[in-house]
Amino acid sequence: MKKLFTLRILVVALALLFPTAALADVALLNVSYDPTRELYQDVNAAFARYWQGKTGQGLSIKQSHGGSGKQARSIIDGLEADVATLALAYDVDALAQKGKLLPEDWQKRLPHNSAPYTSTMVFLVRKGNPKGIREWEDLVKPGVTIVAPNPKTSGGGRWNYLAAWGVALKRNGGDEEKAKEFVTKLYRAMPVLDTGARGSTTTFLQRGIGDVLLGWENEAIMAVNEIGKGQVELVVPSLSILAEPPVTVVDKFASKHGTKDVAHAYLQFLYSPEGQEIAARHYYRPRLDAVAKRYEGKFPKLELFTIDDVFGGWQKAHVKHFADGAIFDQIYQPWQK
Amino acid sequence: MNIDSFLYVALFLAALSAPRLASAQGATTEPPASPAAAPSHQPGDNPAPRAADPRMEELDQRVRVVERRWEVEQETLAARKEEERKNPASVPFAYGKDGAAIKSPDGKFQFRLRPLVQADGRFYISENTNTFLLRRVRPVLEGTIFEFFEWRIMPELAGTPNVQDAYGNVRLLKEVQFRGGKFKSPVGLERLASDADLPFVERGLPTQLVPDRDVGIQLHGELLDSTVTYAVGFFNGVGDGVNGDVDNNDKKDWVGRLVVRPLQPTSFELLRGFGIGIAATRGTHTGPLPGYRTSGQATFFQYAEGVRGTGTHRRLAPQAFYYYGPLGLFGEYTVSSQIVAGPTGHARVDHKAWQVVGSFFVTGEDASYTTVTPKHQLDPKNATIGAIELVARYGEVHIDDGAFDRQFADPTRSARRARAWAVGLNWHLARNFKLMADYERTNFEGGGKSDDRPHEIVALTRLQVAY
């Protein structure tokens, strides 16, 4: 009786040692900023094929898009992203510092400070460029209305603001007051501040509002070549900011879901030749020299400065310009002309 | 009249009666705008061709801006409502995977109710009585006051009602926290694990030698990004495995514990889950001494009548753990050294115990010292089964031979050694619902009238609901 009982227990234990559900399909959630929808649609399809071929495991990747700052807050508040591909390092730093969701030295984990591609801020104008926009100074001419996203919620919005401030500093010998005056005029010419970059594109192209859209280079090139073909033109100023949108695994959630390995592989795929090719096709400047050379002609040449050069990094820029009560809150008053 | 209609009427009247609007912005030298191409249309858009008259063009733009601002505000409102629906943290009252919670609007005051219910079964391959029982029924109450002050009350309603935990914790910094009240003494690795997160239905042999809950004060914290965890406490002092509320002498116990995860900050993934620690206690214990029990709750060692503790009681408990993916391992070794007095005099007796526990999630979840959430909870509609965890353990306890040589214990009733091995299966149906089944065999040296005490074979089951 005793032996039979023991044997039964052993049989059940042995049967369970051969798992039947161990290789279940895996799912990832990529929380990204606003304009990367088309990019990640293609990246996800390509990576899923790659992962299936490498591991035999099915993979589904869900996307969430929105203003970078809003997306970061959503993750901190509990949106369980396995990876975050946001517009700026400051928003990812918030995940580490405020959310304790990943280590604070996250940027070192992937090449190029965890930014597999870059972009910059340019102008999209109506066909024929009726307002004669060529440089940043032209944006504050009387009669020009600008569309751009809100820097409080949108990563692109913050890059725009810092590009404008940086250009004004460089053109005026580092005079902070002149930079503030320029940016104040700039935002007074903006009747609508969308929460994200894609919303601004909608406002400009589909709602027909404004004379110039200030925003991501990739959005602008896509508008010229695709969604706004024949209606808009790209204007590239001679000087702008180098935008480096970062990517990271959200360790706490990826560990919880058991997806750390596949999440890390997903981000590394962005640096691979295939990933870089997809980025370039979607008008993001690739890091890989071989791919960058092939797409050289497709990206306009301009002088670029970095946030570290002009502002001393994101932490300092945020405290000075975007924190509650900081410069942006002081200069922006809604619905002013 | 809604906002759209009102604005259309207002702007139309303004256009009819106001001077040319362009002059209010200053003179412009640009040529009149050429008719712009119509913007691309999407379903649901409200586009219109740009008017040739600059005044009408500006009016058109103002109307579009008003409409678009309205849309953006509606989108923002809808997003905020969706966030509140998905994120219970922003809702004053919520019930979810962490229990029921009430929070003040600013989040600085929180109250949480997190019940724990464990319904067990014990089935022996021996003369013992098989039984179902309520092992734990605990309505755990927790709260936060002004973000930095925490409290916890955990009564036990199963068996004889009593208070298990009742303490306040000041958490001004993660690195330096202060706790006072009744709570687990910071010694045993398995003892310190939550009762809801145990790999087996009952804790192993070394946990018999460490204190359970005690009343006192403790300084504790996490340093270097949680790489180092420490606790230093001053307690009443309790016997091995004892849960105490009051002291029976003026002397108090010092308790200390230090745990290090040396490779946690590195990128060496394979070893980041490794940790090592040590705990120690020192105090003076007098009075009756506790015995030691098996997982089946049978007492296999008991001091003889009249034998009492007297003098210094010391413990040392080195411990280690390792977690990597679905694999979890932990082990501990405990020495409990106490001066004991009996009819033949007094002497120091040193009891030792150790164990190694392994766990493996066959469904791929990451093993953890704390609660594991299944990747896919049990859901027949989607053919998902939750998480399956296999566990195994081996442990021993060695009673000091001096306890028998000095007649502190009867060798025909108390064993000198116990060796236990166990295997088990845990089925995590969802984060809050778990089924457990263990099989354990314990062999003894001594403890029988003429031979060894008969071994114990027991199958333990548990249905657990925990928040």
CATH superfamily of the largest domain in chain B: Porin
Helix run count of chain A: 16
Question: Considering DSSP H and I runs of 4 or more, what fraction of the residues of chain B is helical?
Answer: 10-25%
Strand order of the largest sheet of chain B: 3-4-5-6-7-8-9-10-11-15-16-17-18-19-20-21
Question: Which series of helices and strands of chain A comes N to C?
Answer: HEHEHEHHEEHHEHEHEEEHHHEHEHHH
Biggest sheet character of chain A:
8 strands, mixed
Characterise this structure.
- The complex is a heterodimer of chains A (337) and B (467).
- With 337 residues, chain A is an alpha/beta fold.
- Helix content of chain A is 47%, strand content 17%.
- Chain A has helices at 2-16, 37-55, 68-76, 89-97, 111-114, 155-171, 176-188, 197-206, 217-227, 251-257, 260-271, 273-281, 289-294, 307-311, 314-322, 327-331; strands at 26-33, 59-66, 83-85, 117-126, 146-149, 193-194, 212-216, 232-235, 239-243, 247-249, 285-286, 303-305.
- In chain A, the strands form 2 sheets. In chain A, strands 4, 5, 6, 7, 8, 9, 11 and 12 form an 8-stranded mixed β-sheet that branches.
- In chain A, helix 2 links the parallel strand 1 (26-33) and strand 2 (59-66).
- The longest helix of chain A has 19 residues, at 37-55.
- Chain B has 2 domains: 1-19 and 47-86; 88-466, Porin (Beta Barrel).
- Chain B has helices at 3-17, 54-86, 189-192, 401-405, and strands at 93-96, 99-103, 110-124, 131-145, 149-156, 162-170, 177-184, 213-223, 228-235, 253-260, 274-284, 287-288, 292-293, 299-301, 308-324, 327-342, 345-361, 387-398, 415-430, 433-446, 456-466.
- A 16-stranded antiparallel barrel of chain B has the order 3-4-5-6-7-8-9-10-11-15-16-17-18-19-20-21. A two-stranded antiparallel ribbon of chain B has the order 13-14.
- In chain B, strand 4 (131-145) and strand 5 (149-156) form a beta hairpin.
- Chain B is elongated.
- Classes of the chains: A alpha/beta (337), B mainly beta (467).
- The interface between A and B is large, with 57 and 58 residues.
